[in-house]
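ugh finaly. both done.
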Amino acid sequence: MDASPAASDNDYSAKDIMVLSGPMGVRKRPAMYIGSTGSSGFLHLLYEVIDNAIDEALAGYCNSIVVKLSKNNDNDVATVIDNGRGIPVDIIPKENRPALEVVMTSLHSGAKFSDKIYKVSGGLHGVGLTVVNALSEFTVVTVKKNGHIYRQQFSRGQPVSQLEIIGDTEEHGTEVTFMPDPEIFGNLHFDSGFIKERLRYVSFLNPRLRLRFIDERGMEKDDIEFYSENGIKDFIDYISNGKNSITNPIIFQWKEDTIMLNIALQYNDSYDELIESFVNNIKTEEGGTHVIGFRSGLSRALVNYYSKNVEKGKQDIKITGDDIREGLVAIVSVLMQNPEFEGQTKEKLGNTKIKNIVETGVYSNMSRYLEEHPQDAKNIINKITSAAIARESARKARDLARKRNAFDNMILPGKLADCIIADPDKAELFIVEGESAGGSSKQGRDKKFQAILPLRGKILNVEKAGDERIFNNIELRTIISALGVGIKDSFNINNIRYNKIIIMSDADVDGSHIQTLILTFFYRFLRPIIEKGYVYIAQPPLYKVSRGKEVFYCYSDDELAKKLGELDGKANVQRYKGLGEMNPEQLWETTMDPEKRILRRVSIKDAERANTLFSILMGIDVAQRRKFLEEHSGEVSYLDI
């Protein structure tokens, strides 16, 4: 018998080549255009539409943007309205189609490939609206222009109606409504917290631009406006909120060729650095050449001032970049033509020219500021010197501690109930509140891949503690030992023993407090673990609903109301106050079973939100914390007293 492959298996020819043009290619490989089909890519669709409206504001034709969220059955619908010039609706001769239809259905189409219409813009590749359209079950675009109201509808990248005039108006602008396609994204929902933070910083970067956010999805309508009169000055005040600043806000604004730079910085008495960077209003999460230039220029200016103004006998400790940036909050915003982002999601700037421009500008401006403001200069130098001394002392202390430290010689803590699997990609670690809940979770877990680490009470608040207390704290050392990654200078994420770390605490105020303490520790000392997406929060049920032999678990008040409606209110409701109220079987079924549980991945996509909240809620400023609680007390839906 002939054992060679069938002829059809070897018949690879031109007929096998697929050409997916326009929206079809986007639907086939969506992650190429939006990064992922998870929550970040889902949110990126809305950001693409918002960025187009912001580009109209940058061009000087728009002073009002409205972002509205609503529901279509269980799916989110987003609408973005601006009062800009409106997307062109006239016919493109070569295409013999309205410009609006071309923009919505053809990749690499738009007005941003030259600097005639938009001097600077966030949308550069001409794919934004096309991608949004391609990945949406429906998209409706309404344009007010030329005295008329135009509308056209699309579905999954294709027009389903002709462009038509539906009315007359003297107004102008664009309205885009779309529903992300459940076939692509499943049952994802827009995170209103991230959207509000984005609109907030856009308002800071564009003084006197009004941005309104309306969320109609919940039982109560959320309607908030963002507006800044002073721009980047208001921004630095915002991200410094909750910190004890030791300098005035330092603002630099200058222009070189066609590049406009806005820099704001301020020092506080904390130990962390926070730099928020933007290019044409797009937040560059991973920084880039503009941030490299800023850091270099700032270091040069301060090292130069330090060498000239600090007595020779006090310069024994070498100053490092980390010392200079300790307690620094800064905003680096660049407006420029033709920025070179790395990838469609625009998280890192690559233009090499920008580094030297920013570095030179920051160096000259900061050097002048230090000479003209001696008190601020003195405070910064004292801060840098203290940081250098503390760093050297901490290094010596860590060297000594390493010789006896449990997590350096990889001795696992006795209270850890480890799993059988040694592959980090398949192993899970549950950090559990309390010994009793830890006992139940040990009995209810799957020993093959689930490890349990019970904690005794609340861990140390690291926001208020120095290195020595942190290194000596038993609970924190236990966590580090279990993870296997080390800390500070010895930190190595490649040694991590679990790629899924799940914080499991009671669904009450104390449980939330414990979550916050643990997250504060991870955020301040193990941030790469969060950035990798390894940290999760388990969501135990709030209620057990039973009717006869039927048992249901509800994870929110809305879910409870819906279930009681289905049961006509004829049911017994038990409110869980702690994990210890559940037996091992219930704990597995509701909170630990990968097939049924609800986990929330911890993200620091918007670092200033986490940074501000950690500083206010966990820091030493009691008055600031009281003010925050008073302002937000009305948002509490359940308080366990």
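ok and the 2nd:
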Amino acid sequence: MHLHGPMISADRVDWRVWAPLAQRVDLNICIQHHSEIIPMTRQDGGWFETSRPRESSEIRYFFRLDGNRDRPDPASRWQPEGIHKPSALFFPDDFVWCDADWKGIPRSDLVLYELHVGTFTPEGTFDAVIPRLSELRDLGVTAIELMPVAQFPGIRDWGYHGVHPFAVQNSYGGPHGLQRLVNACHEHGLALFLDVVYNHLGPEGNYLGEFGPYFNDKYLTPWGVAVNFDASGCGPVRQFVLENVRYWLREFHVDGLRLDAVHAIFDRSDTHILREIQQIGEAEERLQGRFIHVIAESNQNDPRLLEAEDRQGFGLAAVWNDDFHHAVHTLMTGERNGYYMDFGHPEQLAKALNDNFVYDGRHSPFHGRIQGAPARHLGGDRFVVSIQNHDQIGNRARGDRLALSLTPEQLRFAAGLMLLSPFTPLLFMGEEYGEQRPFPFFCSFLDSSLNETVQLGRQAEFADAEWSADVPPPHAEETFQSAILRWSWPADSWHAGLRNWYRTLLRARRRIPQLHGVTDRTVQWHDRTLLQVTPSSTVRERTPAIDLLAAEADNDGLFELIRGNPSQGNDAQIVAYFNFSHKPQYLTDLYVERNAPAGWIPVLSSEWPTFGGRHPGSGHPTRTATTWELLPFEVLVFCSTASRPSISSLLEDKPVSQT
């Protein structure tokens, strides 16, 4: 039994609302254009209740506070006409599910694909996503992650201005459309994750504060006052959020939640709300017999989010790891503004790959304090990494993607770093084929003054940038339209080659044991001039995992990534070399003395013609008697001849172009 929202049975509807700030609450109900005001009975704790027969599915209703304010239900399941209009009943049990045998996706197999429903297709609906699921499955994605779908103002928004946490955005297709999408995902063997926001509500249509103490002004978030998880009256608020978690997992068969900005969730209770959210996930996983994952976004590099309860942790499945993104982005683009000032050195990327966090108890110049705590003891699959996501693209002035600033070989290089890493990868919609349309920040508040405030705020944020005059107005429809994917990778284009590179690397993650699940990893940064004198024993040293031989300012060197278990010999390892420079690099003694006697061979190169690369003819990398040449920004993967059969099928199926 839930406490918030209407309880629907075969013959009755029990209406219930928590409104301790109101002296009187009436149910203002409309059935087939006939309105009726029904007084509700006040119960202990500020609850109001009433019941009536279940007469029709076409029911709209408000709660009338103190006889003069009609407000939507704080726990509304459906707002068919928008945030300010009446709530509607939703009957989740009417949907016929076809996923009885669905067991979910284990964490070690997750490949997340973040998408915004409104711009993923021209139609901008849940139903329009369904025809593209087969291509995502062919790509190698195992889970799609929807940006927030809770009802927000207007029809154009990122989703973080939601004000009805239980109601599914009407312009996307409402709750019925979401059910159809989840069901279709499971039929395609894909999990579905929802991005949910429990740290704040949006500024327009946020009526919860009129009902009860849903917010706590002791704490401030970047978006206003925080949700009340630990002050007076917090009990029903906590229950409100926990019921919301259970609602998505149970009524919509969602496979996981991404908790937005948990560093802005403030709770000093004996049991933190994040731990209780995880406990709900664990209980539903046992009850439903399928994998369920709760993943947090945090900027604090706090391993307690992942630690088990007996280690004073919250036990969440995974956490977003921005350190990896920032390390890759700064090295690829040269940008050092804002939080990027903390990054830009090649050894930081090596540290991220070895130790999970770069800032794990180190001083951060950007934050002006010690940041993070050590997390190297945790498996790589506990960390979700990306080279692009909605924040890192959309929070730029113009929402420009990497494909507008990097060459195709650099895009393949960055993808190789992510997909050959031990982490859980997250792709942002379109990156797999080099989408060049932007993903700018957009919204469509019904209050014009809010639109103006947001636009002025965006212009002030980027006032010092040379393109500040070009910041697109967030409320303009053309800003939204500019973000709709082209969804095109014509045959023989670099777009098709890039997508094939993603597809092949994702196959490799599934089929090569050394790249699958939680395996050992060693990353080193080598200066090119020292390769010939580096003892192989030093290169193979696992403890410490990283031994920085050199790191020149012009990035004139190589990354070496070893995946697998070194104690089991060469056959148990995959070695990838990354030429992180604008010059050719040469594998000499580092490769020949260590690997050639074991019969090691190149099995993947980002510069093969099938990936749109620069190697001519057969596509094999250039080799002399003693060296292998790596082109600028080439990724070259080696394994032993004994391991070759396990990856022989990576390139068997030729992908289909999309125009």
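summary for the 2nd one i guess: DSSP finds 16 helices and 30 strands in the chain.
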